[in-house]
Design goal:
It is a single chain. The protein is an alpha+beta fold. A hairpin with a 3-residue loop joins strand 5 and strand 6. The mean pLDDT is 94. It has a 6-stranded mixed sheet with strand order 1-2-3-4-6-5.
Length: 136
Amino acid sequence: MPSISVERTIGKTKKAVLGGLIGYNREKIGKPKYKRFAISLREGGDIVGGIVGEVWINVLFIQLFWIEQKFRGKDHGTRLIKAIEDEARRFGATRSYLDTMSFQAPGFYRSCGYEEFGSIEGYPDGVTRHWFKKAL
């Protein structure tokens, strides 16, 4: 009988789970298109902001987004969002999604045309996690 094992290092298990999941998904939908990329905001040679995402099949997932404080509120964020959406469209994306915390930027994403489709309350100190989507 198989046994359950708790592991402190995840390498072997992650590789096995990912391989199994990829195989199962290919059986159901064929080999999907996948592209990971980043867009940076630079001043001189320094990265002062950036956005990281991936397109899987036809959906952009915005994973990480950050701008140094002194560059916020100056339209750089809107430009970064537009840049990653444009790059995702070139790869065939027709929609986008992301998540953010209530203390981060839900209002910003709404101003960029994103619509909230879910949230989870109960993070520490009254924080809520929000999920947003947008048709590209």
